[in-house]
Amino acid sequence: MNSRTRIALVTVLVMLLLATSTIYVQAFLRPKPVQEVNTDKKIVALTFDVSWGYETAPQVLDILKANQVVCTFFLSGPWATEYPEIVQRIQADGHEIASHGHRHINLTIFSKSEVKEEIMKAHLAIQTVSGESPRLIRTPNGDYNDNVMEAIQECHYKAIQWGTDSLDWMNPGVPVIVERVNRRVHPGDIILMHASDTCKQTAQALPEVISIIRGQGYEIVTVSELLEQAAP
Q: Please, how many CA atoms are within 13 Å of residue 8, restricted to the half-sphere of its CB?
């Protein structure tokens, strides 16, 4: 290999390295939803998405109250409007209210302005019923891209996902739900559950889930309280 060829080869390799590094840095800096909090403390947030129905949510609230657990509820705007009495009970029981958006469809199909419209429609609905201005949002289906994340930030919200999915939305059986949480819970975890009527096994599984979490020595807090404990 002559010197000219070696120089050309080195140049190509350097360019590839720089390009790869740029892509990596862009991906690292790209805003993403919070899935968990970096902490050594044995604290977790138990969260519930609610979009449909009026039977499961009160059952969940009864169980949480009986176990003296405070959680974060991500409410869809239309659901909050339809069931204001349940929203007000969530408040009265000391739980944190957050947003689950307006229509329960993937936000990535929309332009940024349309995403912002979806967010603010839900914001107004929840604010009208509760008097609160939520600042945490879990997008429908956890769907997001750069466009959605920018819209969320511009609406002064923080995007929240989850570290542990209980799979209660699949109705896989109470033992499956409980065992998933048992195996996956970890310090700083955000646990996803649902209080919509489509989730038929959540209320059955919840007492065991709470027992499992506490049995491993964890304290259950709201998402906002968990975020405050993030390691620097």
A: 5
